[in-house]
Amino acid sequence: MPNHNDTAYETTAESDVAHLMEGRNITLDEIAVELAAIELRLRQVAFAAETPATPVELEPMIDTLRSKAGQLREISDEAGKLARIVEGDVPLATKFSGAGDPWGAAARGTDREDFGGPAVVPTARQLIHLAHGARVPGAETTTYPKAMAGMRVLWESKAAQARRRRERDAAVDVEVLVLECETCEVGSGEHCVTKNGRISERPHTKRLRTAEANVDARLGYLGDNPVAVPGVD
Questions:
Q1: pLDDT tens digit string along 110-124?
Q2: What is the spatial distance between Cα 72 and Cα 40, in angstroms, rounded to a whole number?
Q3: Which helix (H) or strand (E) holds 142?
Q4: Residue 8 contacts by C-beta under 8 Å, 6 or more apart in sequence?
Q5: Cβ atoms of residues 193 and 181 within 8 Å
Q6: Closest-CA residue to 87 (of 33, 148, 141)
Q7: Most buried one in 111, 150, 151, 204, CB count within 10 A?
Q8: By three-state DSSP, how is residue 128 classified?
């Protein structure tokens, strides 16, 4: 049965995203515009729901739709700000306030013990913080294009890595049942069994390791990223 967790990657329709973008990857500007369109659509549905064809009081639903639309407006606005930042329209501080740690190309090779290591690839929150920092009188400033110049970063978000991990783990579950188990000697398509013959959905370690090795070889396992990043040798 499908898991309807909001963060789960469940259907092939979710990967049908070519219509959202002009290039190979979606831009922040495209994200902002798409979210604004969805927000408007939600507000339109909420307005229409005030007078449904069948007499049913839909006020809670309408309020929820308008609340979700408001949340999307905030995300869209943030994406729009980030789009201006990455285009170089907004000055950014060259270092984070407090510790004075550099970011971008300047952060390569630095030893930043706090906050998860060097900010070679800055987060959205960090960029907003750096934009505020640039307004401090006397602050040394740069722009996103300048700070990231010369960097060849083949990168995907933590959300994408988590989705790929789920897809990899699901593939391993399938692969396990393709293999025979040398430990309990069950055949392909059968779950492992205990010494007294009870069925267990947890495979024996050797069978699991073989399944993982087969799947990782097919996907191109790369460190913590269970799918090879295109362009990386």
A1: 876 666 678 888 899
A2: 10
A3: strand 141-142
A4: 166
A5: no
A6: 148
A7: 204
A8: helix
